[in-house]
Batch of 3 targets.
Target 1
Amino acid sequence: MEKPHRSHVLILFGTRPEIIKLAPVIHELKARGIGTKVVSSSQHTHLLRPFLKMLDVTVDHDLKAGKANQGPNDVCSRVVAKLDVLFQAEKPDVVLVQGDTTTALAGAIAAFNRGIKVGHVEAGLRSGNRLSPFPEEMNRRLISQIADLHFAATADNRNVLIKEGISRRQISVTGNPVVDSLTNISERLGQNRRSGKKYLNKSDKHNSPLAVSGQIQKILDITSGQRSVLLTTHRRESFGETMSGNLCVLRDFIAKHDDTALLFPVHPNPNVRKVTEEILSGQERVFLLEPLDYKDFIAVMRSAWLIVSDSGGVQEEAPTLGKPLLVLRENTERPEAVRSGVARLVGSDPKRLKKMLTECYEDETWVRSVKKVKNPFGNGQAAKKIVDFLKKNA
Ligand code: UDP
C-alpha cells in the first residue's frame, strides 16, 4: 500500500452509468490507501442496486434522494440539501462526480458552495446543442465551469475544455473508466478477443470469475448462429413518434429476416414500456427483457451482430468490444466513436433506421470491419491515471 494521502475524497453517484464508471476509481483509491467515502444519491433505485453488488461497491451514505416521477429540479434540490448536511460531518477535501447527471451537477454545486474542490470524471463531452440531450448537455457544461480537476477521456474532450477557458494544468487525459469496468467484467466472464490480459491489474481483488444468468444463457443459446440485434432506447429525445417508429422498423426487419433476432432490455420508464408492449410483444424472435445487470448486458453485447442504441455509455462500450453500433440520436457528444468507424448516427427519422438496417444485412462489410478498430476511449488504465492526477493536485 502507498503512503496514506492526506486528502479525503468523497465520491458521488446516483445512476447506473455513473457507478459503472466510478467503481474502478473507488477500488483504485481504496487500494492506494486514500481516505474515500462512497455516497449514492439513489437517483436511480431499482436500476442501481444490482450494479453495486456486481461491481463490489459498498455505499457509506445513501442520500435516498430518488422519488417516483421526479424532475431534474426535484433531484437537484434534494441532493444539494442532503449533501450540504453530509459535508458538515465528512468534511471532504475533494468531491468526485462523473458525467452529466443531475446528481453530478448537484454534487458540484453543493461542493462549490462549501469551498470543496470538485473533480469531474468524463469531462469535456459536448453535443453542441444545449437542449440535447436534456438536461445532460447543460449539466456537463455547468459542471465544467465549477470543477477544479477535469478528467478528460480523450484528447478531443481536453481540447473542448481548453477552448472554454479551462487551464491545461487542471486537465488530465485519462481514457474513460468504462473501459476498465467493461474489460474487467468481460475477462471474468471468459474469453473475449479484445480483453487482453494486459488490462488486468494483478493486485485487483475484483477478479473472481462470473457467469451469465441462466435466463440470458438460454436466450444466447436459442439465438446462437442468428444475427442478433441488441436494442436499448430510453432517452427523452426518443420518446413519442421517433421511438414508436423505430420499434416498428425493428419489428418489421426481424419479421422479414428469419435469421435475425432482437434482444431488448426494456427500460422501466413508462414512456418506453407502453410503446414496447404495443409494438413488440408477442413477435417471433423478439426477446423483451428486464434491464440486465452489467455482466449479462456485456454477454449480450458480445454476442450481438449489431447494436442499436440511444445510450451514451454504449457508444463507448461498442468500440471496446469491437461491435458495430447504430446510434438512435441526431447528434453525439462522443464523435470519437463515429470517427473510429464503429458507430453510425441514425438521426430521428425511422426511415433512416430502416435503410441502415437493410444495408447492414445486405452487405456486411462495415459490420465485420469494426472488429479491427482501435478503441478511442482508452486501454483500461483510466482509474489509475485519475488517481495519479488526483494525488498530485488535490
Ligand atoms: N446497461 C446495462 N444493462 C442494461 C442496459 C444498459 O448494464 O440493461 C449499461 C450499459 O452497458 C451502459 C450503461 O448501462 O454502460 C448505460 O446506461 P444508460 O444508457 O442508462 O445511460 P447513458 O450511458 O446513456 O448515460
Target 2
Amino acid sequence: MSEAEAKSEDPRVEALHERMAGYSLGGHWQERQQAPALVPHLWPWAAIYECLMESGEVIKLGHVGDAANRRTVQLVNPAITNLKSTTRTLQMSIQLVKPGENAECHRHSAAALRFIVESDGGSYTNVDGEQMLMEPGDLVLTPNWTWHDHHNPSDTNVVWLDVLDVHLAKYLDAMYGETYDQGQADNANYFEGASQTVVYPDGYCRLRFGVARPPQDQVDPRFVPYTYKWRDTRATLDALAEADVSDPHDGILLDFKNPLTGGPTMPTINCRAQLLSPGEETRPHNHTSSTIYHVVEGEGVTAVGSGKNGSRDLAWAEKDCFFVPSKSWHSFKNTSKTDPAILFSVSDKPVLESLGLYREERA
Ligand code: GTQ
C-alpha cells in the first residue's frame, strides 16, 4: 500500500477514490505506475551479427504480405523489453539485404537513416528517385515521407544500422505510411512496380544541396534526401585531430548538419561522429537527450554513472552498439595507446531542444 493510501484511514477518502474511479477520474495524491527508467546497455557486435546472419537463413525477404518486407534485428533496451524499443523515442536496428535481394518501396511519417557497416559499395537505396550508393560509414537519410527501396545487385551482403524516430511518432499517434502498391506517386515516372526507377545519379543530392545551389529549389528544407560520404567525414575528423580541436566531453566532435538549414540532421534525430585520440579520456557530462552509439573503429570504455539509471562501465570494441540514457553522467576513454577510436551516434536532442526541454550539466 502506498504512503498516501496508508494515511487515508478516513473512510470518506476510500469512498471518494472509488467514486472517482467509477467516473475515470484520479486524485493527484493517489499513486500512479511509473514508466521504468531506461538502462545503459551494450550490444556486442558478435551477438548482433550471429543473429542477423541466422535471420538471413530463416527469414525470407519478399513482397509485402507474403514475407518480411525488411529483415532487421532490433536493439531492445532491457528495461522495456515489452515495448521492444531501443529508447523511448528512437529505434536502432541492423538490416541485412543479401545478394540479389530488394526491399520494396514504401514511405512513412517516421524519419529514418542508414549508417552502412558492411558493403562492397555495390548496394544502394533509392530515395525519391535518387540512387544513393552505400559504402561503409556512409550516412543515408530517408526523411519523413520520402519514398525508399533498397537494392543489393552485388555479390556480397550489405549490412547497415537503421535508425527511426518511430517510437516518438507512435507516442504522438502520428505513425502512418504506405507502400508503393497502395500509394500514389507524386511523379508517376519515378515508379515501376515495387521499386522506384533511378532518375537521379548517386551524388546528385550533394550537388543540388551543395554550397553553390539553385536559389529557388522548391523543397521543404527539413526533409531533404541526403547522403554524407564517410570519406569526407573521416577526412574532417583527421584534419581536426591534426589541428587538435577537441571538445573536453566528446573529443573531436562532428554534427551531421542539415545541408540547407544548418540545423540538426533531421527534425527529430541528430547524428554525430566523434574521434577519441589514442589514450584520450573525456570529462563527464549529462544531458536530457538519450544517445545510441556505434563503434566505427577502435576500442574503449564509456563510464555511465550514478543516479537512478545505475552505474555501468560499457567496454566496447569495433562495431558494438551501446546506449546512454537521458540525464546519465558519462565519459569516454580510448583504451588504445596507438590508435584513434571513432564513434557514430544518434540522439533525440533536436526534439528536446525544439521543445525547450534540453539541459546539460558539465563536470
Ligand atoms: O528499411 O525502410 O528498420 O521502413 C524499420 C522500418 C527499416 C526500411 C526499419 C523501415 C525500414
Target 3
Amino acid sequence: MKGRLYLITGNPGKLKEIKNRLDGLDIELSTMEEDFVEIQADTLEEVVFFGIEHLVGEKRIDRPFIKDDSGLFIDALDGFPGVYSAYVQQTIGNDGILQLMKGMDDRTATFKTVMGLHIPGEGISLFRGEIKGDITLEKRGFFGFGYDPIFIPEGSERTFAEMTLEEKNRDSHRIRATMKLVDHLSME
Ligand code: ITT
C-alpha cells in the first residue's frame, strides 16, 4: 500500500512510535481525532473490532485507518488493569499500581497491543504484539508515557521510560504489532 494512513488516537506518544517505525516507507501517517466508542469487553481484540465497526458503520469513515488499543496485564493481579488500562492510568496511575503490588514477589506482566486496520472495501484486519516484562518497585525514567516508568521489558535492565524513543522502538508490544501491519501492507 502507498499513500496516507490515518491513526485514530488522542495519544501523541503512540503516534511518534508508529510514525518512527513507518519512516522510509511509502506510507504517510496522520492522526484523525474521532470519538472511538470503546465497548466493555474482556479482550483488546473485541474493543478494537467493535470500535472500528462503529466508526465505519455509524460515522461512515471511508479512508484507510488504524486504531491501536494497548494494555498492561499484570500476572499477580489476574491480568489487571488489562482492558481497563486507560481508566486506571487516569485514576490511580503508576503510584496506585505500585501500591497495589506492595509486598508482591511475582512482578511479571505482559504489555499487549492490538492494532486494527480498516481499508475501505477490504474490511478489518487485526495485528497483535506482546512483550513480557516485570513491574518495578518504584518509578524510573522520564521518557515515553503511561506505564513506561514501571515496566521493564524482558532482556533489559531499564524501564521503557529510561529508553529513548528509538531504543523503545527496537522491541516493544507496539512495534511487534506495527511490524505485522507493515508486512501486511507491503503485500497489498
Ligand atoms: P488512544 O486515544 O489511542 O485510545 P490511550 O492512551 O487511551 O490513547 P490505550 O487505551 O491504548 O490508549 O492505552 C491504555 C493505557 O495504557 C493508557 O493509559 C496508555 O497511556 C497506556 N499505554 C499504552 N501504550 C503504552 C506504552 O507503550 N507504554 C506505556 N503505557 C502505554
